[in-house]
Amino acid sequence: MSVNQSILIGYSGHAYVVAEAALEIGVDIIGYSDKNPVPNNPFNLEYLGFENNPDFIGWQLAASFILGIGDNSIRQKIAELVITNGKELLTVISKSASVSKTAKIGYGTFINRNAAVNALSIIGNNVILNTGCIVEHECVLGDAVHIAPGAVLAGNVTVGERSFIGANSVIKQGVAIGKDVIIGAGTVIIHDIPDGKKVVGNPGKYIE
């Protein structure tokens, strides 16, 4: 078995999108892990068991892993489990994504269709850059961040670990978003946001 082969972790919703992008760039997905076999198997993948079980066969195979988990905290924990077991996390970048040659992309990251990452941006590990989002020049994204479809980060924006930037939201140039922040869909952010806050609206306002 070749190390060019990969195992998909999670197999529903977001994982379908990741799997499709990975297959399009020639990744050989040999199977998936999940708590149980899933009834809907659109890519005809073999069920290999659950990664948290001690008898999980995936740890014995010469294969890398692909993260198909949308939840930021869970994705980060699973990534740590994969690394602890001495396995590689594959970064998947869609054929139609535009990534600057001067940008730095961490391991286990997924960059979906029509997403753009511009000059000198730094993208952490296990990040999701979803469909059509824009990460402008010199942005810095921490580990396990999720930038949802259509969101725009103007230049020099920073986003802390595990934060979620909702669909079609806009972050003003130079703004700093803390860790574990949730920015609602369509929100406009013009000021820094501290750790752990939830923000919605235009302009963005804190909610409980």
Alpha-beta classification: alpha/beta
How many whole angstroms does the radius of gyration measure?
17 Å
In CATH, the topology of the largest domain is named: UDP N-Acetylglucosamine Acyltransferase, domain 1
Main sheet, how many strands, which sense, barrel? Answer: 8 strands, mixed
Order of helices and strands: EHEEHEEEEEEEEEEEEEEEEEEE
Q: Specify the CATH homologous superfamily of the largest domain.
A: Hexapeptide repeat proteins
Task: List the strand order in the largest sheet.
Answer: 4-7-10-13-16-19-21-22
Strand content: 25-35%
In terms of per-residue confidence, which ranges show pLDDT below 50 for 5 or more consecutive residues?
none
Distance between the termini: 50 Å
Which term fits the overall shape? globular
CATH class of the largest domain: Mainly Beta
Arithmetic mean of pLDDT? 96
Question: Which percent range fits the helix content?
Answer: 10-25%
User: What is the helix tally?
Assistant: 2
CATH hierarchy: architecture of the largest domain:
3 Solenoid
Counting DSSP E segments of at least 2 residues, the number of strands comes to 22
The count of domains is: 2
